[in-house]
Each structure stands twice: as structure tokens, then as C-alpha cells.
Amino acid sequence: MKILVTGAAGFIGMHTALSLLRRGDSVVGIDNLNDYYDVRLKHDRLQQLAGQGDFRFERLDLADRAAMAALFARQGFDRVIHLAAQAGVRYSLVNPEAYVDSNLSGFLSVLEGCRHHGVEHLVYASSSSVYGGNTRMPFSERDNVDHPVSLYAATKKANELMAHTYSHLYRLPTTGLRFFTVYGPWGRPDMAAFLFTSAILEGRPIDVFNHGQMQRDFTYIDDIVAAVVRVCDRLPTGDQGFDSGQPDPASSSAPYRVFNIGNHQPVALTEFIGCLERQLGRAAERRLLPMQSGDVPATYADTAALAQWIGFAPATPLADGVARFVRWYRDYYRI
């Protein structure tokens, strides 16, 4: 198949493109290579894709409507895996406009391209952040997600609503994936594994929010990618038994689905830090801080629906995933 991967220079995007290329798909990757974090890391990710089969890269901004329309018209994609977005909960507090441009206007460009050019299936990144103020654990796709606590989360909820509209109006099959705290080699520098590792190795204190009383459903990148690819291969067709009197938020009579992708094993942040300390052979100096605005104390994915849909469940133990990340980090930065 010919598949568009947006955000191909990103963490999940690079790994997803690699997986598709290795099984023989033709991949076109786009990314705007913005400077939200170290652009060199993004270029180095793209180098991992060079020469890995039928891969082409175009530097392109999602919010450039004319360029996006021309891309879809020129390429004739079979399917689209949309992973590009302005990421980060905390950054949305200081630069909200970036989230509107990328996550809302940019997502509309993707939807319009799929609509007008016969794309068979749009798979797109949502986020566990949509659960917002919900405190019922584990988070289920059937839960109400009408109380976001960050603009980032609000844009991801908006993406799900926009996708459903296009599934309903134009019968475009769409599947949204709510990612839960992804980590692993080539990860993002603004995420916990990267931030903590760099600080510990440099002898700096690490910031531990909510005084350490945090839990996250850490999910290893290989498990995430395996699920993304399998989801891409299965098109939603609409639930014939959908009850509009008691609607299920995760499905529809339209060809639309939403799934959690998590490890289904929440881990205390202190345990995650301990794993890093053991792999690095150094103790962290912990600076305990209050909860940050826009954050939530815990995430925990109910993954039963995903397992039923594609027969898959994450399988990488935290200790193994952290060890692989630390090996990559030391090799990449030659530490």
C-alpha cells in the first residue's frame, strides 16, 4: 500500500514508518521540522528511514492548506496514519496558538485530503489526556471525556469529534488512538525518560511533580507501533447495533472507532525513576514540586476493546523498555 505518515520525523512517526517500510509498504513522510525540541534529533530520525525501502520525505506544514491539498492530489494515498501534532501539555499553557494551527487547522487539512482523494482509512493520534478530570480507573473509551484540563487535551478531543463528522457525512473510515505515555529509543526530549536521564547523567536534580504522587501507564514504543499498524489494517465499518438512545462514545453507526493504546499497568513515577537509576548506575537528586497546571495525577488504560479488535496486547516489561532506552541514549549521545 501507499501510506502517508504525518510527523515522520517525530518519535512515533519514525518508528511507524520503519515498520511499514520493513513489511514492504510505500511510505511518504511529511513533517514541518519545527523547533519545539532539538531539530537535529528529528533529522537523525529521518536518516534512520533513508534507504529503508520506498520512502520519500517532504517538508510540509499541516496548516498549509494549498500544499496539503496538492500533496493528496499528487500522491494518491491508500491510507493515512496521522501522527503529526503540536505535542506537550505544559507547552500549551505558553503557546496556545501552535495547538490551534497544527492540531485543529492541520487536522482539517488531513480530513479534507482524505475526503477528496478516496483514502481507504485514516488512523490518527489522539491522547490519554482527553480523559482530563476523570478519576475512574482504568480509563475506558466508553467514559465521558467532556472535561479536559489542558488546551492540548481539548484539541485532541476536538480531533475525535471532527473525525466522527467526516465518518458520518462522507463515510470516511477513521480510527483514533489514545496513546498512553509512550517511551523508548529516539523518544521526545520533553518526556520523562529523556528529561530524567539527561539530568541524572549531568548531576542535575530532576523535577518530580505532585511530590512524587504520580502514576503513568508507560507504554513501550514497539508495542505502540505494532498496534498502530494492525489498526491501520482493519477498517471500521460502523456498528450495526449502535444505540443512538444510549450512544457509545467509542463507536458509531458511521465507520468510526476510538481505542486506548496503553500498557494496562500503571506505574508509580518513583518506580520509573528507580528503573532509570538502576540502569544508569546513579542516584537521582529529586526536587519535589506541586502538581503542574494541566497535568493529571494518574493514567491507566483499559485496553480490552483494542485486544478484541486486533487481538493484541502490549508485552514489554518496564525494566526491559527502560534498559533499551538507556542503551540508545548512551549510544546516541556517546555517554
List the helices and strands and how they pair.
Blueprint: E1 2-6, H1 11-22, E2 26-31, H2 39-49, E3 55-59, H3 65-75, E4 79-82, H4 96-116, E5 121-127, H5 151-170, E6 174-179, E7 182-183, H6 192-202, E8 206-208, E9 215-216, E10 219-220, H7 221-233, E11 256-261, E12 267-268, H8 269-280, E13 286-288, H9 304-310, H10 318-333
Parallel strand pairs: 1-2, 1-4, 2-3, 4-5, 5-6, 6-11, 7-10, 8-13
Antiparallel strand pairs: 9-12
Helix pairs in contact: 1-2, 1-7, 3-4, 4-5, 6-8, 8-10
How would you portray this structure in words?
The structure is a single chain. With 335 residues, the protein is an alpha/beta fold. Helix content is 40%, strand content 16%. It has 10 helices and 13 strands. The chain has helices spanning 11-22, 39-49, 65-75, 96-116, 151-170, 192-202, 221-233, 269-280, 304-310, 318-333, and strands spanning 2-6, 26-31, 55-59, 79-82, 121-127, 174-179, 182-183, 206-208, 215-216, 219-220, 256-261, 267-268, 286-288. It has a 7-stranded parallel sheet, with helices on both faces. Strands 7-10 form a two-stranded parallel ribbon. A two-stranded parallel ribbon has the order 8-13. It is globular, with a radius of gyration of 19 Å. The relative contact order is 0.14.
